[in-house]
Inverse folding.
């Protein structure tokens, strides 16, 4: 069944975006990522113009992350207190990021900056997460009761963070941090998210895991909460500034993703935290490798539609 | 009394010359019946389930003439990003080029291969039949002159792979009926052809020379719910953005509630 997308100006088999949304929705529910870093390139591959892909994907992530946040909230896995501090930071970072995009665009460096940022962030995060997860999985085989949260290890960095002012206890995550920490980290994530055109989930998750020391189950739900608001902001800006949101495309995607995220959340509960992290690290690394191939292999066409990001 | 009419030799020659002058155009174009064209689909409406359509053209022409049909978009200006190697290693967008005086959509079909029907001297000027003709007329801005040929080739290849440029035969059928010929064309219209105005030109060609031509306008426009959404996105962007967000929020919540209730029922 073909439907015509009024903003993308394209006729598409309706089951294709529904299927893509469903697959990426499962990942959202499992890992707490919005899935934009995966879904946007897939949409471009099936012929959706880049700007419309980014904008419409942000729109459907609002639905998927609402569904996912609700599911994780019901499981008791959303730390709203931490999420709000992160949001204050990421909202501010988003504004910086948009200004940074303007500057880079004026310098003619925007495409270079975006691609290199993607490869560096995805490659670094994926490699670190994979290394850490695999070492924990191996350790589990040799220790009877491993502590995946490593609360008993006090590194120098952790001690330094505990010396910051405005210390607040986040009951749901069981951690105590300065209020400045999630705000500053949120600014960093929000800036990168605006530059890369993503919800920021795949950056926020390692930040929550390794810097905020939150348990993985709290990380997934809280990340979705943060991604939800980031994507509300992005959807509105894309609709008003670029007229790039294709509501019909977003609706087809969200039919699949809202269901997929529920299934992902359900199976995420069944999986061990380290297995979850290993899987996510694997996916992030796979996307990083694909991007390196895209950067180094000659493209089929040397011309492309203007617009994008 | 019999009258005898004597013809002077000069008068006979003049009569023959007059006869030839009258008949020669007919001999050169023995079937110069006027071209008549009927476009059955002057308007293509893009509706909710649109996936392309067929443009139907019919008419009559002189006997034995080739029929060539060209459909061209009115839009002839495009800005495209160019990809190049940065640091000798990385492929990425490095600039942009403006293409002018070259259509965004170009399709030519005929009762025979259109590029073989026209004489080379007239194929390009004024009929623009064939990609070399588009190259000649196009203007490129934003690249060094030495690379223009390369970018023109890339442009045409991009358009061909997107289904927006094609040259074909087999979609026009002709049938002789006495001294005239009827023709019927069913030209596939791709869904990726954007809304806008297009010019459909029909040429009747004999021995490489165009004997007659006709032009029709073809309009492609969104209608119904598709038009409603597109207009909302373009002209009421704030309301459209808020509506998109609200629908997403409500849908996400609704699915969340459905699954939660389903799990509660199981437990």
């Amino acid at each position: 069944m073909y439907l015509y997308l009024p903003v993308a100006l394209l006729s598409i088999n309706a089951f294709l975006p529904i299927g893509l949304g469903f697959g990426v929705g499962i990942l959202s529910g499992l890992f707490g990522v919005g899935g934009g870093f995966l879904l946007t390139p897939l949409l471009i591959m099936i012929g959706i113009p880049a700007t419309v892909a980014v904008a419409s994907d942000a729109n459907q992530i609002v639905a998927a992350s609402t569904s996912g946040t609700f599911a994780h909230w019901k499981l008791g896995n959303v730390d709203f207190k931490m999420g709000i501090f992160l949001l204050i930071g990421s909202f501010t970072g988003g504004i910086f990021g948009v200004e940074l995009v303007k500057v880079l665009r004026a310098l003619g460096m925007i495409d270079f900056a975006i691609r290199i940022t993607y490869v560096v962030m995805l490659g670094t995060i994926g490699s670190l997460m994979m290394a850490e997860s695999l070492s924990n999985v191996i350790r589990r085989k040799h220790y009877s009761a491993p502590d995946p949260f490593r609360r008993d290890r006090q590194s120098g960095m952790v001690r330094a963070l505990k010396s910051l002012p405005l210390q607040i206890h986040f009951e749901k995550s069981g951690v105590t941090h300065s209020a400045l920490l999630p705000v500053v980290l949120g600014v960093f994530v929000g800036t990168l998210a605006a530059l890369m055109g993503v919800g920021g989930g795949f950056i926020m998750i390692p930040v929550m895991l390794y810097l905020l020391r939150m348990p993985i189950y709290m990380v997934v739900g809280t990340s979705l909460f943060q991604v939800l608001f980031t994507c509300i902001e992005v959807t509105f800006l894309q609709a008003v500034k670029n007229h790039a949101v294709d509501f019909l495309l977003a609706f087809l995607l969200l039919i699949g993703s809202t269901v997929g995220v529920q299934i992902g959340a359900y199976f995420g509960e069944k999986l061990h935290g380290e297995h979850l992290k290993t899987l996510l690290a694997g996916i992030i690394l796979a996307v990083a490798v694909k991007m390196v191939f895209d950067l180094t292999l000659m493209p089929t066409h040397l011309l492309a539609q203007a617009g994008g990001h | 009394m019999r009258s005898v009419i004597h013809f002077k030799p000069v008068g006979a020659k003049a009569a023959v010359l007059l006869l030839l002058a009258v008949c020669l155009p007919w001999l050169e174009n023995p079937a110069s019946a006027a071209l008549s064209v009927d476009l059955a689909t002057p308007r293509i409406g893009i509706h909710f389930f649109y996936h392309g359509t067929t443009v139907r053209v019919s008419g009559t022409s002189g006997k034995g003439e080739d029929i060539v049909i060209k459909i061209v978009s009115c839009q002839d200006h495009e800005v495209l990003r160019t990809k190049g190697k940065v640091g000798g290693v990385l492929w990425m967008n490095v600039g942009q080029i403006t293409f002018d005086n070259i259509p965004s959509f170009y399709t030519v079909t005929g009762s025979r291969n259109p590029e073989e029907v026209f004489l080379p001297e007239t194929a390009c000027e004024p009929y623009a039949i064939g990609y070399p003709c588009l190259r000649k007329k196009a203007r490129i801005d934003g690249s060094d002159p030495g690379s223009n040929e390369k970018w023109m080739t890339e442009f045409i290849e991009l358009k061909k792979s997107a289904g927006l440029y094609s040259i074909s035969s087999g979609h026009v059928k002709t049938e002789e009926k006495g001294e005239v010929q009827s023709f019927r064309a069913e030209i596939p219209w791709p869904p990726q052809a954007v809304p806008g105005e297009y010019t459909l030109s029909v040429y009747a060609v004999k021995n490489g020379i165009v004997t007659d031509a006709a032009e029709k306008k073809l309009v492609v426009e969104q209608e119904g719910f598709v038009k409603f959404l597109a207009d909302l996105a373009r002209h009421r962007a704030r309301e459209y953005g808020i509506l998109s967000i609200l629908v997403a929020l409500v849908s996400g919540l609704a699915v969340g509630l459905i699954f939660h209730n389903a799990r509660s029922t199981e437990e």
User: Anything to note?
Assistant: The longest strand of chain A covers residues 2-5. Residues 144-153 of chain A have pLDDT under 50 and may be disordered. DSSP finds eleven helices and five strands in chain A.
